[in-house]
Amino acid sequence: MTVRSIFNFREAGAVVATAFRWIQISTASLRSTMDPKRHSEVVRRRLEKIFGRPENDLQEDPLSSLVRTILSQNTTDATSERAWESLRKRYPTMTELKEADPDELAETIRVGGLARLKAERILNALREIERLTGKLSLDFLKDMSEEDADAWLAQLKGVGPKTRAIVLLFALRKKAFPVDTHILRVTKRLGLIGPHTGRLEAQRVMAGLARPQDYFSYHLNLIEHGRRTCSARRPKCGICVLFDICPWSEKERYAGSAMTKGKEK
Fold it and tell me: What is the CATH number of domain 62-171?
């Protein structure tokens, strides 16, 4: 091969690379102008094909849901469930739980992490609920609108937006879209929410993008996708079923073999 042919080969390669990059930029730009609801619906349908459509068949009262959700803060499902089982074994009723010694409660739920903080939040919430309503129950929230029920729960110290939304959706069957760490990361990468959007605003945006009847399954499937594929570190972009509609600028870096794209399981 001559010097001139090598030069031409390199020159042609540079042109191809530039053209490919232009196509990538143009595609990403096109996605950024896609109707947000349409984009979200495509995401939802693809995830549903992979993970199915979970149904909300939980039979848990809202007060138990609140306590369980506080236990789930900043930990895994497995350790949260172990903490819940330990708590229920030691304190069979909410009245017994409300009267628990803080140190003893913290020791009981230690497996779930942040035990002292969670014990304090649980006890404060139960005592405040009883003070405000005269009983240990949140069943009255069933008769409130989503906005009023959320505002009532917001009075309780340590009960943040995600915790409230989980109680509203899971236990009260109300229109709320909880956003956890996984969903916040995934939806930012997908361009469903802005890069600097906070959790409270993300919940509002996602509730507007999805249909209420899809909130429960979409919520769980986004979490599953975040755990299995779109992880915080080393996301498996090469097997992601959303690769072609994802505008994340870093996806090519983690894509791996192009032959594996779309093989998420």
Answer: 1.10.340.30
